[in-house]
């Protein structure tokens, strides 16, 4: 059975670690996940079938921007978790080569990670659905907080953050798959492995696959080992074991 001692040993002898992260890595920061007990799909404070549907966005974008205002306000006041910080530290030590994230909260970058593949996009940039004009994060955030529906200064089209909606293609999957194939250790952290195509990435790993997540997994890779515990507690223990070498 996988435990923190064994995980620390795997990390110590690896040189091309790749991490796939989902909403579970950010819940300790105060950002609810989507499928957990207090998640969006359970509480339905926002209708998940409409909030992230690109056709509905083009029909009535107010549904999404009600969520976006709350989300951006929340993200601004939270800090990365111990797990985010640990992954950034592994990257700085040259052990972890990339983070593939399904999250749109930007906490990996806030923690110091540099090579982050955001397969579901992010709020860091937006563009007008009409003329294609690009908007920076600060411009986008200002408009989202100030307007019920943010409109372009140039053509009055609706501005959409560059996050991936249902009905749109995910981003960076070729790069993500390549990273997975080069991995000598693949960590699936805070993800139930139920959202495709990202859920398929562990099967491409060139090395061991370890899931650190609470709850059932959708995609189970042959030989994959799991630690079903609090993510921050797991990485705090692993860091303590590795501390002389980090």
From TrEMBL:
InterPro entries: DHS-like_NAD/FAD-binding_dom, NAD-dep_sirtuin_deacylases, Sirtuin, Sirtuin_cat_small_dom_sf, Ssirtuin_cat_dom. Its EC number is 2.3.1.286. CDD domains: SIR2-fam. It holds the Pfam family SIR2. One of its GO terms (molecular function) is histone deacetylase activity, NAD-dependent. It comes from the Bacteria. Keywords: Metal-binding, NAD, Transferase, Zinc. PROSITE patterns: SIRTUIN (PS50305). The active site is at 120 (proton acceptor). Zn(2+) binds at residues 128, 131, 152, 155. Residues 1-246 form the Deacetylase sirtuin-type domain. The keyword NAD applies. This is protein acetyllysine N-acetyltransferase. It comes from Candidatus Cryosericum hinesii.
């Amino acid at each position: 059975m996988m435990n923190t001692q064994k995980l620390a040993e795997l990390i110590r002898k690896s040189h091309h670690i790749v991490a796939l992260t989902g909403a579970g890595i950010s819940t300790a920061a105060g950002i609810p996940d989507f499928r957990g007990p207090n998640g969006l799909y359970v509480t339905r404070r926002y209708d998940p079938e409409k909030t992230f549907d690109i056709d509905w966005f083009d029909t009535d974008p107010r549904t999404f921007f009600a969520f976006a205002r709350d989300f951006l306000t929340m993200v601004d006041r939270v800090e990365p978790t111990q797990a985010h910080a640990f992954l950034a530290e592994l990257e700085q030590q040259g052990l972890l080569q990339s983070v593939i994230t399904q999250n749109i909260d930007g906490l990996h970058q806030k923690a110091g990670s540099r090579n982050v593949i955001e397969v579901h996009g992010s709020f860091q940039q937006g563009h007008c659905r009409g003329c294609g004009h690009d908007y920076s994060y600060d411009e986008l955030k200002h408009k989202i907080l100030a307007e019920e529906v943010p409109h372009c200064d140039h053509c009055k089209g609706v501005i959409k953050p560059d996050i991936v909606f249902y009905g749109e293609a995910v981003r960076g999957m070729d790069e993500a798959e390549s990273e997975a194939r080069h991995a000598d250790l693949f960590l699936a952290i805070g993800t139930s492995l139920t959202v495709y195509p990202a859920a398929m990435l562990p099967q491409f790993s060139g090395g061991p696959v370890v899931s650190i997540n609470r709850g059932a997994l959708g995609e189970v890779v042959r030989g994959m080992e799991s630690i079903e515990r609090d993510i921050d507690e797991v990485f705090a223990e692993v860091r303590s074991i590795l501390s002389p070498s980090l």
